[in-house]
Amino acid sequence: MIDKRKTNNNLDWVIILLYGVFVSIGLLVVYASSHDDSRPFFDTRQLYIRQLIWVCTSIIIASFILVTDNKIYTTFAYFIYAAVLIMVIGVFFFGHEVNGNKNWFEIGSFQLQPSEFAKFSVALVLAKYLGNQNNNLKSNKTKMVSLALIFFPALLIQLQGDTGSTLVFLSFFLVLYRFGLPGEFLALGLGVLTLSVFSLLIDKFTLIAILFIMAGASLYFIKRTKVAYFVIAGLFICASLYVTTTNYVFNHVLRSHQQERIKVLLGQEVNVKDADYNVRQSKIAIGSGGFLGKGPLHGTLTKYNFVPEQHTDFIFCTIGEEYGFLGTTLFVSLFLFLLIRILSLAERQRSKFSRIYAYGVASILFFHFLINIGMTIGLAPVIGIPLPFISYGGSSLWSFTILLFILIKLDADRLAVLR
User: Fold this and answer.
1) At what angle do helices 47-67 and 13-34 cross, to 10 degrees?
2) pLDDT at 79
3) DSSP 8-state class, residue 417
């Protein structure tokens, strides 16, 4: 039995306060990057007014989560996962196309992106599955089921053309590693990533020749047995096939703008003029802020819309231009503090379900934070994912709110059980 008064006393007010700070910062920078002086201040066509509505509804959602029984999330994790999957599949039939991607539901002026909610549903279902004492990541069956739970919604989202949201699901590998996935899998992942980069930088026949030389040279450093020969030969064949596959996917599967973004990141020349325009303007805006910034609402590049998508994917530019190095450092420090706080919550959980879910929350937020800021300063490809709690958008704000406040609720109830 849960004592509601004890639950309320155990709420982590530090995280709730940080949530309020980030949401407030988000409102401020959305206003700075999107306000139109030719329209009335309270015009609902103003993006900051719409964002204010999203914030108010998010507070209602957060409050609802805090007053519900946490058993809802443990008991109905599979149902929530299935419901979100149905929504994601429904987009193929009833979705509305935005910017060339059909991944939104549209009801009047209201738009909802189901792929945003898939992230917290996977965090829940993974916690439910791995929280079962009978499931251990040392088992091949558990590995395969866990990967299926992660990659099935990721595949559906990729088929909708939303590569950015698809890549976010890679963050769950950090959760799997924390709870028993062998380190060899992470090493394999890093190897595949490295091979992918080299396959785009080096001619495939030259790269295969280099792999052949490396395979031959490795025989001098290991014990030469039949097993070793088979393993090295197998790795060489798989790597060679992967190099060929990577080139095919890059040239025939990825869209032209996706190819251009990857080439820009790798420092390669592109045929399309100003293919790196977004990133260049972003870096100029951040750099122009100097140490202290130009001040609130005084960002010239922000004010005159020199940076595309400056209220969504590139909203960090507004922080950099208006608040400078000092402001961005403070913002990054606050976000890192939030991540550290979530990890501390994870370690103090009594139930395995809550602990796994907490690591899922930390991994998702970290991935979004790292990639979003990385792409605004040219260190990551422009894949179009929001900065948590800051970027304009109702679906992302709702999903991050649900993600975080379920954790707050689970943590609050860990000591509220009457003995």
Assistant:
1) 170
2) 95
3) B
CB 90 within 8 Å of CB 105: yes
Q: Which residues of 329-362 are buried (b: 16+ CB within 10 A; e: fewer)?
A: eebeeebeebeeebeebbeebeeebbbbbbbbbb
DSSP string, 159-204: HTT-HHHHHHGGGHHHHHHHTT--HHHHHHHHHHHHHHHHHHHS-H
pLDDT in tens, 138-195: 888 888 999 999 999 998 888 887 778 888 898 998 898 888 887 777 777 777 778 8
Cα end-to-end span (Å), the chain = 9
CB-based contacts of 1: which residues, under 8 Å, 6+ apart? 417, 418
Instruction: Show me where the domains of the chain are located.
Output: 4-180+309-415, 189-254
pLDDT of the residue at 419: 35
CA 253 – CA 241 distance, rounded (Å) = 17
Which residues, at least 6 apart from 372, have a Cβ–Cβ distance to it below 8 Å? Answer: 313, 316, 385, 386, 387, 391
Nearest to 366 by CA among 385, 339, 404: 339
Q: How far apart are CA 301 and CA 275, in angstroms?
A: 19
Inter-residue contact 330 to 320 (CB < 8 Å): no
288 touches 304 (CB < 8 A): no
For residue 405 the two structure tokens come to 């406040």
Q: How many Cβ atoms sit within 10 Å of the Cβ of residue 379?
A: 12
Residues 6+ apart with CB under 8 A from 387: 315, 316, 368, 369, 372, 373
CA 250 to CA 265: how far, in whole Å?
14
> Is the distance from CB of 316 to CB of 376 less than 8 angstroms?
yes
Cα-atom radius of gyration of the chain, to the nearest Å?
23
Tokens matching residue 356: 């796994």
Structure tokens at 14: 């530090």
Of the candidates 292, 319, 300, 297, the residue with the CA atom closest to the CA atom of residue 376: 319
For residues 284 and 269, is the Cβ–Cβ distance under 8 A? Answer: no
Name the burial class of residue 376, with classes exposed (0-12), middle (13-18) and buried (19+) by CB atoms within 10 angstroms of its CB: buried
Cα–Cα distance measured from residue 24 to residue 17, given in angstroms and rounded to the nearest whole number: 11
